[in-house]
Amino acid sequence: MKFTINIPPMLLSPFRRRKGERGGGRLLKILDLYILRNFLGTYFMATLLFLAVIAMFDVTEKLDAFLTAPLKETIFDYFLSFLPYFGNQLSPLFVFISVIFFTTKLAGNSEIIAMMSSGVSFRRLVRPYMIGAAVIAAMTFALTNYIIPPTNVNRIRYTNKYVRNKSVQTGTDIQLMTRPGEVAYIGRFENSNKTGYRFSLDKFDGKRLMSRMTAATAVYDSTRLYHWTMHDYMIRDFNGMREKITRGSSLDTIIPIEPKDFLISVNDQETLTTPQLSDYIEKQRMRGVANIKGFEIEKARRYASTAAAFILTLIGVSLSAKKSKGGMGINIGIGLVLSFSYILFSTVTSSLAVSGYTSPEIAMEIPNIVYLIIGLILYRRASKF
What gap in Å lies between CA 261 and CA 74, rounded to an integer? Predict the structure, then answer.
C-alpha cells in the first residue's frame, strides 16, 4: 500500500537545489535567515511580554514607595535599570521559551519534515539556532559585564532610599592591610559622618614593628581619594631601643583605603563592571579582607551565564524538533520546568561556593556541564529521526 504526503510547494521551494547552484548554498542561506529572524523575533517578543508582567507585579509590590518617590526618579533611576537587569537575569528562560515555541510551531506545521526531505540534516538545521544563540550570548555578555552594573548604582540607591535600606552604615573591629607591611584597625566606623573611632596604623619591616599611629577619631574626606584627617593623634617611631613620640590635635594624611573597602553591602558586587570587579577582588585579597566571596561568585556567574544561551538553545531545538502528540503545550511546559530548574540549580551551586566546598568558578560551571550533557543526549536522539 502506498502513502503519499502532500507538502505545500511553498515549504519545499526555499530548500530545493537549483541547477548550477552546488549544494544549494544560496537557498540554504534563506533557511538560515528564516530561522534566525523568527528565533530572535520570538526571543525579543517573549522578553518584552515577561518584563511587562514583572513590571506590573513590581508596581503592585512597591506601590507605596512609588507613590512617595518623585516620578522622574522612579522612571529613570529605577525602571530604566530594573527592567534590563531582570531581563538579563532571566535571559536563559526567555531563550528556552523562544526556541521551544518557534521550533514546536515549525514541527507542527510539518516545516521541519519538509526541510529534512530536501536534504537538510539536523546538524545543518541547528546552525542558524546557534548563530542566534551567539547573538544573544554576545548581547548578554556586554550587558552583564559592562552596561548594566553602572545603572545598578541608581537602582540600588533608589531602593535603599524609598523601599528598604540594605546598605551597611556601621562597621566594628575593622582590620585590613592598607599597603604591604601596613595594617590599619578601626574600632567602629560610622558612614553617616565618615568617622572612625579608636584608629590605629601599624607599620612593619618584616616582623618588626617600626611605627604605630593612633588617633581618637579618623575622618574620611569623600571629596579627595584616600584622604584622612586624624584627631588627637599620637605617632610612636621605634628605632632599636629608642622610641620617638609625636602628638598633635589634627593631622592630614593619605591612607589607601576608603569606606567602601570595609563597609560591604549585599548588592555592591552588582554595581561594578567586570574589570572593576577583578581589580576590587585582587585588592581585597591583598588586604586580607575575608568577605569577598559574593564578588568572586558574581564574577564567575557573569562568564558562566554567557554559555547558557548555547546550551539551552541546543536542548530546546532537540526537544521540540519532533512533532509531539501533546502539541505545543507539552513542549512549553517541559521548557519552563527545565529553564527554571537551570536558574534554580545555579542558585543552589552558588551556595556551595559560599560554604567553601568548591571554588566559585567550578560552582558556576556545574549547571552548564550538567545541562550540556543533557543537551548532547537530546541532540543525539533528535538527529536520528
Answer: 29
Within a domain: 12: no
Do the beta carbons of residue 120 and residue 24 sit within 8 Å? no
| Same domain? 122 vs 37 | yes
Together in a domain, 62 and 209: no
Q: Is the dihedral of CA 318, 323, 325, 326 positive or negative?
A: positive
> DSSP label at 248?
E
Q: Is 342 found in the same domain as 245?
A: no
pLDDT in tens, 272-328: 999 999 999 998 888 877 678 889 999 999 998 888 899 999 998 988 888 766 566
Specify the DSSP class assigned to residue 246.
Answer: E
Tens digit of pLDDT for each residue in 40-79?
Answer: 999 999 999 999 999 999 999 999 999 999 999 999 999 9
CB 302, CB 137: distance < 8 Å: no
Amino acid at 215: A
The Cβ of residue 18 has, within 10 Å, a number of other Cβ atoms equal to 8
Strand-pairing partners, residue 219, are 195, 229
The last residue of a domain, from among 211, 237, 258: 258
pTM comes to 0.82
Q: Helices (DSSP H) in 62-177: which residue ranges?
A: 63-68, 71-72, 80-89, 91-108, 111-117, 122-142, 148-162
Same domain, 226 and 334: no
Evaluate whether 340 touches 123 at the Cβ level (below 8 Å). Answer: no
Owning domain of residue 248: 170-258
